[in-house]
User: Which sequence fits this backbone?
């Protein structure tokens, strides 16, 4: 029997509706509207699409959106000054600088300059550290979206053998820590792991985030496993994930498609983090 397809679009829509309800309650009870500032430097087409999607989501859930579009020749000092200014704005609760930056700009000091309690992307070392110690107040959006999809698919997480294929700082490592916080027994593997097919076959939950087109084969999937495919690989044949979807769905209990799985969750979790950042400001006042 073929696996249940985990509908990321529907889950993301549900999360946005939940956030919108909480935003209305915050406005009614505290006269506060969460505000998200997005800084875009240069004219990267992919980044422009992401920023438009974030603006659209903000409008849907009732979050104020502040967009700052800076020219490609913006200096490091100018960008740092803007981050410092936004950190101090009372109407801005969440702040992100869209990556990648133009090559002449160093992203590390920019990320470090963002107030960790406003870091809705979850990339600041303080927030990554919070994830490690089990206090994921502002987790990275894509890893948090993976966890939401696993939960909403009905998978039993406590005590499950969870495997993350991929070790990036943006997805692989944080999603492994989030799985650990859900009481999974977690293994991290990658493209150079020996005996990877057999390791995959033991996984009750498999998160593929290695960035290699259909690297995880269908017969690597344990019968009844939950499979979350983070990969977005553009090929001459089209867009594919890190898992051979058609073969894997014959063995898995539930699986995310590409596209329409993890992708829509990233912006939805950004909206959730922006709401959380506003709540943190209220609780500290």
Assistant:
């Amino acid at each position: 029997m073929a696996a249940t397809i985990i509908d990321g679009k529907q889950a993301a829509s549900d999360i946005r509706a939940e956030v919108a309800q909480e935003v209305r309650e915050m406005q009614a009870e505290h006269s506060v509207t969460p505000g998200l500032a997005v800084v875009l430097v240069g004219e990267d087409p992919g980044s422009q699409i992401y920023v438009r999607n974030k603006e659209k989501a903000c409008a849907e859930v009732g979050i104020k959106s502040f967009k700052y579009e800076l020219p490609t020749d913006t200096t490091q000092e100018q960008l740092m000054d803007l981050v410092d200014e936004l950190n101090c704005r009372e109407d801005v609760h969440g702040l992100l600088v869209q990556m990648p930056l133009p090559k002449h700009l160093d992203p590390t000091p920019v990320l470090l300059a963002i107030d960790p309690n406003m870091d809705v992307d979850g990339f600041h070392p303080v927030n990554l550290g919070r994830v490690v110690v089990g206090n994921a107040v502002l987790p990275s959006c894509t890893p948090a979206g993976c966890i939401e999809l696993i939960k909403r698919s009905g998978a039993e997480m406590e005590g499950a053998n969870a495997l993350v294929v991929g070790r990036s700082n943006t997805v692989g490592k944080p999603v492994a820590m989030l799985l650990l916080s859900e009481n999974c027994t977690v293994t991290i593997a990658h493209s150079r792991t020996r005996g990877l097919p057999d390791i995959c076959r033991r996984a009750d939950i498999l998160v593929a985030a290695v960035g290699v087109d259909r690297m995880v084969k269908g017969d690597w999937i344990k019968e009844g496993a939950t499979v979350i495919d983070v990969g977005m690989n553009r090929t001459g044949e089209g867009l594919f994930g890190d898992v051979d979807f058609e073969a894997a769905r014959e063995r898995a209990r539930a699986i995310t498609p590409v596209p329409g799985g993890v992708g829509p969750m990233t912006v939805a979790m950004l909206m959730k983090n922006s709401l959380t950042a506003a709540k943190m400001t209220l609780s500290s006042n």
